Every structure is written in C-alpha cells, then in structure tokens.
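Below is a filled-in request sheet from our internal design queue. Each sheet records the structural input a requester submitted and the sequence that came back. We keep these sheets so that new team members can see what a complete request looks like end to end.

REQUESTER: design group, bay 2
PRIORITY: normal
MODE: inverse folding
CHAIN LENGTH: 343
BACKBONE (tokenized):
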C-alpha cells in the first residue's frame, strides 16, 4: 500500500526563483465540548511522550547528572583542603559547566513545545502557490500526528478521522497537520545522501528519510507577524544547515516538486530538490563534524543518482512516507530528463 498521496503535484519542477508563494490564514486546531475526550487523549499522549523520550535518553541524563554531582562534591569537600591542584580544579569547574549545559539541552530537546505552521489547504496555479496556514505546536503534533503513526493506535487514528468528517466534513480537521519541508539533496559529484533516523527522534525512529523538518512560525519573534512573511525556502535551508551543515553558498539550484501527505498521520510536507556545489566527501565531513542536529540521523549513506530507483524499490513502504514521496518525485523528473543539465 502506498503510504503517501500528493496534495499538490507539479507537472514539471519549478525553480524556486520562479515560484510565488501567497499565504493566508487558516483555522487553528480546537476541540468543542463534545470532543473533549479527544483533547484529553492528546494531553495523555504528551505525558506518555515525555516518559518515553526520557527513557530513551536515560543514559545521557544519568551521565550528565553524575558528572554534575561529582563536580559539586569535589568543589564542596575537597577544594577547601587543597587535595587537588588549582589546574585540576579549574578543569573540573569547566567540565561541570559543560555537563550542566548538556543536561539542560537534553531536557529542552525532550520537553520544549515549539510553535508550528498548521496546514489547512493549498492550490497551485501556474507558478503561484497559495497556502492557507494557521498555528499549531509540538504538543498537538505529538498528541495527534505522532500518535496516529503508531500501529497500535489505529483505533485512535480512525476516531480522529471520523470526528473530523462528522463535525466539519474534513478528515484532517482534528490532526495537528504541521507543515514540514524536505529535500532530495544532490552533491556536485552526483550523490544523494539519505539518513537513517536515530531512536531519539519523536516520530519514525530507525527509518530512512531525506533531510528536512518542520517549519517554525515567526522565527525572529516579530511583533504583528504577517502570514505573507513566511519563507519556506529559508525554513528549508535552516533544516539543511542544522542536519547536514549545508549553507546558501553551497547551493547551485533549488526546485519545488509539490506537497505530499502522509496517509496515516495526515501530515503534509513540501518537497524540494536542492543541487549542491560541494562534493560527497565534503558534505559527509560536515555532517560528521559541524552539523548541530546530526543526532537526528544515526547514519547517512550516499547513493548514486542512478541507484535511486533500486533504493526506492527495496525500501518502498519502509521509509518516512513523505521522504519516499520526495525521492519518487525527484526520480520521476530526473528520469524524464528535467535535471540532467543540473545534476
């Protein structure tokens, strides 16, 4: 069974410089009194998520906590009696601050509730993409989209779908529907990096995916922020920078390929192709050494463009669905000759 469907499907790739994006307000996620049972399930899913993610990272938490406690004990009991040298104590103090920072980062990664764009609809006419967006957040995402991805939660997913149909004639209404972006990235020597997601990500751990992520509303926290200021390309580049160390200076071309929806979680994702001017070895070095969010993938493997069809056939249905859609759409356009002059 195909795990994704196209919401917006381009007949041809659209160069990002030629794409006009118009954004209007959509409707936020809200639960009427008759649906408070669903809202309660959302809150319980968030609590379960906190417990689960804490368990997955318990070794990191314990390690940082032990280092902090040992450092505090040494400072309190041994420093006054001059058992250790001043140099050692300075190093211990520096290590203590690092451990505290690591612990704060782990807790923040687990428990933060970031705002996200809620996708409410889209139309493409020529080179003009019109989006209807509102706000959702990471907690709503965990309580609906993420929970619906769990096979054992099939009944919950079906109840969300049916409630949306009954109340608003919209099967997606009671899902968070955060808009994400992902891209097939191609190096200057013709390789496509694909990541095997780690087990510390919230959804689809240990699953193949392209680079990408969720779009953050109003990243500069501007007063009176207007929807028209939304810049999907900047959001995409932020994700590529975080996950792979890619900068604007590395990019030769960027194309819009469409918008796909995960048929299980109902989550939408804008699909792109990004052609780089850096080689496979340079991109691999950056992922290993400077990408701040490299933890999201436990491994990145590089495939020749000519090998994508085989990869898709081998892993079909076992990739992140929208990542699979991005690969399939890129490969279709490539096989049709759309990118031969670029890739």
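RETURNED SEQUENCE:
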């Amino acid at each position: 069974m195909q795990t994704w469907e196209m919401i917006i499907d381009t007949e041809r790739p659209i160069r990002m410089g030629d794409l006009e994006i118009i954004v209007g307000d959509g409707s936020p996620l809200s639960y009427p009194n008759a649906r408070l049972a669903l809202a309660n399930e959302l809150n319980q899913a968030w609590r379960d998520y906190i417990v689960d993610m804490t368990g997955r990272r318990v070794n990191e938490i314990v390690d940082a906590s032990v280092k902090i406690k040992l450092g505090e004990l040494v400072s309190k009991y041994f420093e006054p009696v001059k058992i250790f040298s001043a140099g050692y104590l300075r190093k211990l103090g520096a290590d203590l601050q690092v451990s505290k920072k690591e612990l704060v980062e782990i807790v923040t990664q687990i428990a933060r509730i970031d705002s996200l764009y809620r996708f409410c609809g889209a139309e493409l006419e020529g080179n003009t993409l019109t989006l209807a967006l509102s706000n959702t957040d990471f907690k709503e995402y965990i309580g609906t989209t993420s929970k619906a991805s769990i096979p054992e939660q099939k009944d919950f997913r079906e109840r969300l779908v049916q409630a949306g149909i009954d109340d608003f004639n919209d099967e997606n209404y009671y899902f968070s529907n955060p808009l994400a972006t992902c891209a097939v990235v191609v190096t200057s020597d013709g390789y496509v990096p694909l990541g095997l997601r780690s087990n510390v990500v919230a959804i689809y751990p240990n699953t193949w995916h392209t680079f990408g992520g969720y779009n953050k509303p109003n990243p500069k926290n501007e007063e009176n922020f207007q929807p028209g200021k939304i810049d999907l390309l900047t959001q995409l580049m932020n994700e590529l920078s975080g996950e792979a160390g890619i900068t604007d200076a590395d990019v030769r071309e960027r194309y819009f390929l469409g918008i796909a929806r995960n048929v299980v979680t109902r989550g939408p994702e804008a699909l792109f192709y990004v052609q780089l001017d850096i080689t496979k070895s340079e991109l691999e070095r950056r992922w290993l050494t400077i990408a701040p969010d490299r933890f999201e993938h436990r491994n990145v493997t590089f495939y020749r463009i000519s090998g994508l069809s085989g990869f898709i056939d081998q892993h079909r249905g076992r990739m992140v669905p929208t990542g699979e859609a991005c690969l399939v759409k890129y490969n279709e356009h490539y096989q049709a000759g759309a990118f031969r002059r670029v890739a």
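SHEET NOTES:
- The chain is about 40% helix and 25% strand.
- Residues 190 and 306 are 9 Å apart (CA to CA).
FILED BY: M.R.
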